[in-house]
């Protein structure tokens, strides 16, 4: 296992999962505001990296600002951004029917993804929290017609109170049952599409990037797939018992990201 000192010495960019990693239901985990500030003072770049494709970067920035985490030198990167970049790189100019909130669809358009609700060349499944039967039926018809199928991320549920909400992974199963199709490409964590896009954007070596998260099957697997340093925090979903039987292996395990604060103060 890597030591905390080694982690801080080699890492230039910290990719931070959010819920369960830096906050729980918008409540900061311990003295997280100070820890993030100390990381910035040490010259570390902070990238808030989330699979949740129901919100635009601007909506996340507003949330992070409200909690007291945001600094203008930080960055937000979502699975929807990774998907837009993937479409522009591998399917340039092709039109897409995008199942997403109006705000996220507008963000895809802003990023140069052409949209067509009548005869698209591609189908994109994002986390549409305004999903209704009319949208589902249309999307299913396009899948049945054989349109190339892209999903933003695979998470089956989204943490919420009082109970978790169905997420894109649940929608994937719904459309598998109705159309017989599964996505041709999934862009978010843990898959390499998002990692490759981030590596290119950040302009640093993979060995200088650390992914910090509380989920083994997304955050830690994502780091393993992309050869980033895998930092597991036990402040969210994962317990020590779960870690013992997991095929996904972190390079370092922390009770929370705040464990780095004493070293950063030195």
In short:
With about 270 residues, the chain is α/β, with parallel strands linked by helices. It contains 11 helices and 14 strands. The radius of gyration is 19 Å and the shape is globular.
CATH class of the largest domain: Alpha Beta
Task: Spell out the CATH superfamily of the largest domain.
Answer: HAD superfamily/HAD-like
Please tell me the overall pLDDT: 96
The shape, in one word, is globular
Biggest beta sheet summary: 6 strands, parallel
How widely separated are the two ends?
A: 22 Å
Secondary-structure class: alpha/beta
Number of domains: 2
Q: How many DSSP-defined strands? A: 14
**Low-confidence parts lasting 5 or more residues at pLDDT below 50?**
none
CATH architecture of the largest domain: 3-Layer(aba) Sandwich
Strand content: 15-25%
Round the Cα radius of gyration to an integer and report it.
19 Å
Helix content: 25-40%
The secondary-structure element order is HEEEHEHEHEHEHEEEHEHEHEHEH
**Helix count?**
11
CATH topology of the largest domain: Rossmann fold
């Amino acid at each position: 296992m890597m030591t905390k000192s080694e982690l801080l010495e080699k890492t230039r960019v910290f990719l931070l999962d959010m819920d369960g990693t830096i906050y729980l239901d918008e409540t900061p985990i311990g003295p997280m505001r100070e820890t993030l500030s100390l990381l910035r003072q040490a010259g570390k770049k902070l990238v808030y990296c989330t699979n949740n494709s129901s919100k635009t970067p601007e909506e996340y920035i507003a949330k992070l600002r409200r909690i007291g985490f945001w600094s203008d030198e930080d960055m937000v990167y979502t699975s929807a951004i990774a998907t837009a970049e993937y479409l522009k790189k591998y399917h340039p100019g092709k039109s897409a029917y995008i199942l997403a909130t109006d705000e996220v669809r507008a963000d895809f358009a802003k990023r140069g993804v052409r949209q067509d609700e009548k005869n698209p060349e591609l189908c994109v499944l994002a986390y549409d929290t305004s999903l209704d039967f009319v949208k589902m039926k249309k999307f299913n018809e396009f899948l049945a017609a054989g349109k190339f199928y892209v999903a933003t991320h695979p998470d089956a549920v989204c943490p919420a109170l009082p109970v978790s909400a169905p997420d894109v992974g649940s929608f994937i199963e719904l459309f598998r049952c109705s159309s017989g199709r599964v996505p041709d490409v999934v862009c978010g964590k843990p898959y390499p599409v998002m990692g490759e896009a981030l590596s290119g954007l950040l302009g640093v070596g993979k060995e200088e990037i650390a992914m910090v998260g509380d989920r083994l099957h997304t955050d830690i697997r994502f780091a393993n797939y992309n050869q980033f340093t895998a930092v597991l925090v036990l402040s969210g979903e994962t317990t020590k018992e779960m870690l013992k039987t997991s095929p996904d292996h972190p390079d370092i395990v922390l009770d929370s990201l705040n464990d780095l604060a004493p070293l950063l103060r030195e």
